[in-house]
User: Fold these one by one.
Assistant:
Number 1:
Amino acid sequence: MAEEPADQAFTRLEESLRPLLRHSEVRLALAPPGTARRLPADVAHAGRAIGRGLLLAVLEQDGVDRVHVGWRLDDTTLRVSVRDDGPGALSYCSLGRRRVTERVEALGGRLDVDAVEGWGTTVTVSLPLGTKESAGAADPLAPLGARELEVLGELARGRRNRDIAERLHISESTVKFHVANILAKLGVGSRGEAAARFHAAA
């Protein structure tokens, strides 16, 4: 299997990102993985494509002054993170236009979007270093982040958005945002279907 050193892969990502900001006032901060450990070539390529796609999605927003792009590597996973200080309007669905979700799913990865209105968005993509099969993608709830699992658990108990917001100490609009992401990630069309998935996985 072809491989690529992580630090060199990130340098190639950096070289592809800087031209995107050549005529922009947005400041770009980079956090390389700090290791020459070798990555599977398809993971390195996907990490670069996802990083570029996320940056392009961020730049479509108004009011963004700073963007942070980083890679972290552990024994099993490459984590690509992109954080902005914009309006907090990015969603799981909006990233699909940049083929980000498609690339993540192709490698059995996971995408988490943490958006806070008025404060910005952090997108974290976790790509397994093994194959999709070896990553144990059988868990139907695997695409969901920790907060999304909490929201889904409350939803599966039949609670309304207002009740969920009160129990989790978040705003009702944030609950709506998480519910929309949950439906999109699970590929279902209703709260009832999402609840059924939760109960089936319990």
Note: The radius of gyration is 17 Å.
Number 2:
Amino acid sequence: MPKMKTHRGAAKRFRLSKSGKVKRARAYKSHILTKKTAKRKRNLRKGAYVAAQEEKNIKKLIPYK
């Protein structure tokens, strides 16, 4: 059976944690930052986990991570 191809877009956006959960970055941190409060921008720096419903689909895209 041939090797599976990794979805390169997904590989750049998601990482697997040691427990097998899928980690992601938060959105809304790239532009129009002047109107956002410092607290809001600070909280956007923190990572988050992908919702459980989406986890199975993401793991298919990044089979070798």
Note: The mean pLDDT is 96.
